Amino acid sequence: MIKLLAVDMDGTCLNGRSRMTDRTLWALRKAAEKGVVLVPATGRNLECIPHRLAAGTLRETGTPDDDANRGLFRYVISSNGARVTDICERKTIFQASVKREDALTLLEKCRGNGLGIASHVRHRYLLQGRFLTAAGLMIYGKDAKGVYCVRDMEAFIRKNNYEVEEFQFYFLLPGAKEKVRNILKEYPSLHAAYTGIYAEVYSREASKGNALAALVGHLGIRQEETACIGDGENDLSMFASSGLKIAMGNAVESLKVQADHVTDPNNRDGAARAIERYIL
Question: What is the C-alpha to C-alpha distance for residues 179 and 176, in angstroms, rounded to an integer?
Fold first, then answer.
């Protein structure tokens, strides 16, 4: 019997337009009503959790937010596993932040290298400069509750003494990606995941797998009583910490190889279909 379900957001519960369909939301709600502990597991910061999941509303029924959201989820794995939060008690269950000294020297070395800089700090998504912030607001749309603009990231971190859950370095000029790679060779305590336009940088202790293992231990749930659904390489560690492993049809091949089941792609409600078949 599955007691806990960890679900990735982008590329899994969200379709290609970064939207959550009614069918997916309905399936998640039914799982929660069944008593399954529903855990969003995302690369996003906590305050940028998809607004439809946070509100719990179905477009067709027009169910009020407060009633629909009641009991839907309590625990969130955010920032690629850098943090696990109990949102009811406002309590951190697991945290693996970038060391403050590493954060400040990294920002200093990345200055002036054709990079746009963003970070996850205290559950918020901080972006350096108005241009990058405007782009972030446009990309996240209604999910942009946690997006904030800072003038100088290094000065902000130094002044406020905040811990950084994750950095994102956007490649604005040719050669910027390679510069980031070379700089990060000096930081063995950090891990980087690259896309064509940016790099996510976080502590080597931060992973969805470590976060899920910490949460399962906190709740006293056995690994074989857990399930997860994902699509990306950052979900591989979560698979290692789960009992039932489900990969999306649009998932990377390395994840499909590790999966117990492969469902339909995110543009065909694959997450909802998997929940209906294997959880409900």
Answer: 5
